[in-house]
Write a structure and sequence with these properties.
Elements (H helix, E strand, L loop, with lengths): L1 E2 L2 H21 L5 E7 L3 H17 L2 E7 L5 H13 L5 E4 L9 H7 L11 H8 L8 H13 L10 E5 L6 H10 L3 E5 L6 H5 L4 E4 L17 E4 L3 E2 L5 E2 L4 H4 L5 E2 L7 H19 L4
Parallel strand pairs: 1-11, 2-3, 2-4, 5-6, 5-7, 7-8, 8-11
Antiparallel strand pairs: 9-10
The structure holds guanine.
Length: 286
């Protein structure tokens, strides 16, 4: 069984970006990410800190906006508008979730699609849907990299049966579109799917993105399948765990991602990749 090491692969991607960023700097181009955090949610604070640390490691400039929990939607939209207009800002990231007085959709829609490094804007989602260029949501983009870099070189996604469990806008749906782009045969299962075990057992590649610990057991997995666990949950003991029962599924899978250390670290690596692409796009003529 092959344990797919997301920590290692995300490090490779960050190191590649670090080298390419040094070359951009020689041309006078600096990659800049603006990170906005509203309120003091501890988990969000950790995520934002890690994103800023990754910028520092690669050599990007990060601008940090830490706004009080009472910030109004109008105030946040005004800041986004200002950042949209700044030539020295390549990417804008508003950490979710937002306090309840702010409509997340209005915020996502306000970010210029060319600076939407999260890939959440409807323009970017639409571009993915019809096979045009655009920013892709970081977690599903990270899963594609795990499959391409974490499996034997002769492993081909093309023609494989792929089952995705979960249909969120941020993971399940873009994941399905990306796997389709890689020429997999894609099934999206969800909470109303009948005979989930049977559906999952068809999969050569099974991607669990439900957000429920213990959801995927050995009864859902075909012998030799590749299993990608996108879930980040806490069990009764407070330990981090995925959607997949790792101990039993790892006995029958040919490859599997651990939690932590699988998909998680890839999200930030792909965010960094999107920032790099944004800077290239904004400096086309240099
Ligand atoms: N909150 C949890 N995940 C994410 C993410 O990928 N991007 C943003 N902006 N907020 C999040």
């Amino acid at each position: 069984m092959n344990l797919i090491d997301g920590k290692l692969i995300s490090q490779q991607i960050k190191d590649e970006l670090k080298e390419k960023t040094a070359l951009l700097k020689e041309k006078g181009i600096e990659v800049t990410l603006a990170v906005i955090l509203v309120g003091e949610d501890p988990a969000s604070q950790v995520y934002v800190r890690n994103k800023k640390k990754a910028c520092e490691y690669i050599g990007y400039r990060s601008l940090s906006y830490e706004l009080p929990a009472e910030t109004t939607q109008e105030e946040l939209l005004k800041l986004i508008d200002e950042l949209n207009g700044r030539k020295d800002v390549d990417g804008i990231l508003v950490q979710m979730p937002l306090p309840k007085q702010i409509d997340e959709k209005a915020v996502i829609d306000a970010i210029s699609p060319s600076k939407d490094v999260d890939g959440f804007h409807p323009m970017n989602v639409g571009a993915l849907c019809i096979g045009e260029e655009g920013f892709v949501s970081c977690t599903p983009a990270g899963v594609i990299q795990l499959l391409k870099r974490g499996l034997p070189a002769d492993y081909d996604i093309s023609g494989k049966e792929c089952v995705i469990v979960g249909r969120s806008n941020i993971v399940g749906k873009p994941m399905a579109l990306l796997m389709l782009r890689e020429n997999a045969t894609v099934t999206v299962a969800h909470s109303r799917t009948k005979n989930l075990e049977e559906v999952c057992k068809k999969a050569d590649i099974l991607i669990a993105a439900v957000g429920k610990a213990g959801m995927i057991t050995k009864d859902h997995v075909k012998e030799g399948a590749v299993v990608i666990d996108v879930g980040i949950n806490r069990n009764e003991e407070g330990k981090l765990c995925g959607d997949v029962v790792f101990d039993e599924v790892s006995q029958i899978a040919s490859a599997i991602t651990p939690v932590p250390g699988g998909v998680g670290p890839m999200t930030i690596a792909m965010l960094m990749n999107n920032c790099y692409e944004a800077a290239l796009m904004h400096n086309k003529n240099v």
